[in-house]
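G., the chain you wanted modeled:
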Amino acid sequence: MDAYAVLAALLAAVLSYAAPSPAPSDPQIVAMVAQVSADRLRATDTKLVGFGTRNDFSETSSTATHGVFGARDWLRAQFEEIAKTSSGRMTVALDDYVQPKTPRTPRAVQESSIIATLRGDEPGLVYVMSSHYDDCNGDCTNGTRVAPGADDNGSGTSAVLEAARIMAPHQFRGTIVFAVFDGEELGLWGSQHFANELKAKGIAIAADLNNDIIGNSTGGNGAHEPDAIRVFSQALPAGADIKDVNLVGSENDSPSRELARFVGNIVPQYVTGFQVRQIWRADRFLRGGDQESFQDDGYPAIRFVEANENFTHQHQDVRNENGVQYGDLLPYIDFDYMAKATQANIAALAALALAPQAPPNAQMVLRRLGYDSTLRWKPAIGAASYEIVWRSTSAADWQFAQRVGNVTEATVPVSKDDYILGVRSIDAQGHQSVANYPVPLRER
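Predicted structure as tokens:
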């Protein structure tokens, strides 16, 4: 058989493979998603708005019913009540430190994030759902003026609290951290402090699902999308070598992108009619979020944000000007939409925390020129088998898959020159991990 015939046969074999199958629906995840309450989300967000301001610089004037630390103490008490339903597996703590004065801030300020940790069966697998509870109006350094923060970020904080309430009674393979950070509006301070501490301790984070501005279904341009949410993910992981990225074509396969693909496939399976819109960048222009703190420390992280934002109701002093209402106020929140966004997070977070570990140390073995591809990896925690997935270099998502059994090396008749390949773990119940992109390894 000549080379053209061999190539044609291999191409026919590739095209004969089926698209990757979704993991079987898990009744436990279905039940958790169904428990999300729009009314409870409304009550939480209303309580947060009721503190008048959650600006960082209101900390010295905070009381039980006012200011950033009034909100913090209430949130901490809520998490502590939730922890009572976890059979001792959830602990609640504050991550406190003093943030020094910066060129854009008037003074040093105490930062205080709330960290609720739901211990899993495998402590080495850690997943984070995050938000920030601080807010600001037209001046993010003014702690005296009203700053309701209903959408930015009462919405994300309400979602994290709701997810913790629903998930705490359940047991997971992975440990889940429910984090509401302080200091996001002034430089991602709380999340940077937390992520840096984890990195210094050598604690690996498998994923951060950050929620920031997820409560409004109608944009300032009039666009109304009650059944879509955006997920932002960065292209290049921290420390990536551009030359290597260009050589192997991994610019769309960072750990954060693989996490985004996983979430995009899981969410519609459990939240009917609700779609994830993949945005291939770290965040919006002129904006940022706590997911970047995790990405900067080398952890996979993504950001959930509503499909269409209304900037009249973000970072604005509350006022009526020329007949236009400004301010981040409760009447502009769609709590049914927020409930769907919360369901999307719970589905993705539960699917991650129930799944086996993604195959560690995935490698593309380069021994010779050829028409196939060999992948190798280390055994993954909880894996019963593995699946190699692939797509054309111009495709956004995985197109083909082949189960290869409980092995740590496999060859598929797919050209490594023409396709992007990955490998993922599958457990005995069918839960699938995030796919790992293999690092090229030349063998002589």
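The domain at 3-21+357-442 is CATH 2.60.40.10 (Immunoglobulin-like).

Shout if anything looks off.
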